């Protein structure tokens, strides 16, 4: 009687076991790779929304600063004043006129968000102050105010868009069961 032949017929050869294990491993790695690619795409969208929001904050602050320069210019101008001298005084020493401090007093403005003071000297060197209207003059009955629209986008609409993207990417149990996301590594020794 050949015991060796009959005992080996009950268990599959080691080559088949290795192939099955490799197939399972490959399947889990493929699913993990696809989930990682999906995560990269979702993060890209989150980063774009965050970038747009940050840009909106900078646009808001720029609008507030230009408006404050315009207000200060109009307040300091008199009938006999030289517009260039008045504005040069404002641009040369904005702290004297509390330009930046008044913007810091506004809601949701950090001192780290404020641009360099010299940038406005350059800005108004290219764009004369007389070309600008106050922000209150930018409002219309039907369209509303531009600053309010920017603030609404920054504080409500973009965060809502971001949370709607985030709510759809929480992994469900089915994907964890397939990939073993909660699986602990097995000690081989």
Could you outline the blueprint of secondary structure elements for this entry?
Elements: H1 3-8, H2 14-76, H3 83-92, H4 99-104, H5 117-126, H6 146-167, H7 173-179
Helix pairs in contact: 2-3, 2-6
Describe the protein:
66% of the residues lie in helices and 0% in strands. With 189 residues, it is an all-alpha fold. The protein has a domain at 59-166. Helix 2 (14-76) packs across helix 3 and helix 2 runs antiparallel to helix 6. It starts with a helix and ends in a 10-residue tail after the last helix. Residues 1-8 and 171-183 have low confidence and may be disordered.
Task: Describe the structure using short key phrases.
189 residues, mainly alpha, elongated, disordered N terminus
Short description:
Helix content is 66%, strand content 0%. With 189 residues, it is mostly helical. α2 packs across α3 (83-92) and α2 (14-76) packs antiparallel against α6.
Query: How many extended strands?
Result: 0
Task: Provide the residue-averaged pLDDT.
Answer: 80
Q: What is the CA-atom radius of gyration, in angstroms?
A: 32 Å
End-to-end Cα distance: 38 Å
Helix content: 55-70%
What is the overall silhouette? Answer: elongated
Percentage of residues in DSSP E strands: under 5%
Count of DSSP H/I helices: 7
Low-confidence stretches: 1-8, 171-183
Strand/helix succession: HHHHHHH
Sheet/helix structural class: mainly alpha
Q: How would a crystallographer describe the biggest sheet?
A: none
Region (Disordered): 168-189
Protein name: Sarcalumenin
Biased composition (Polar residues): 168-177
InterPro entries: TRAFAC_Dynamin-like_GTPase
């Amino acid at each position: 009687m050949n015991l060796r032949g009959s005992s080996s017929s009950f268990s599959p050869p080691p080559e088949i076991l290795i192939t099955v294990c490799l197939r399972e491993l490959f399947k889990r790695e493929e699913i993990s790779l696809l989930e990682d690619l999906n995560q990269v795409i979702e993060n890209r969208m989150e980063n774009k929304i965050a970038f747009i929001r940050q840009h909106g904050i900078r646009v808001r602050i720029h609008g507030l600063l230009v408006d404050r320069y315009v207000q200060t210019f109009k307040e300091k101008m008199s009938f006999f004043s030289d517009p260039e001298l008045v504005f040069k005084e404002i641009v040369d020493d904005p702290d004297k006129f509390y330009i930046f401090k008044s913007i810091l007093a506004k809601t949701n403005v950090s001192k780290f968000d404020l641009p360099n003071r010299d940038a406005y000297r350059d800005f108004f060197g290219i764009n004369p102050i007389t070309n600008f209207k106050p922000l209150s003059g930018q409002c219309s009955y039907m369209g509303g105010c531009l600053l309010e629209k920017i603030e609404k986008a920054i504080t409500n609409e973009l965060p809502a868009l971001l949370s709607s993207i985030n709510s759809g990417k929480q992994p469900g149990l089915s994907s964890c069961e397939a990939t073993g996301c909660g699986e602990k590594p097995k000690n081989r020794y």
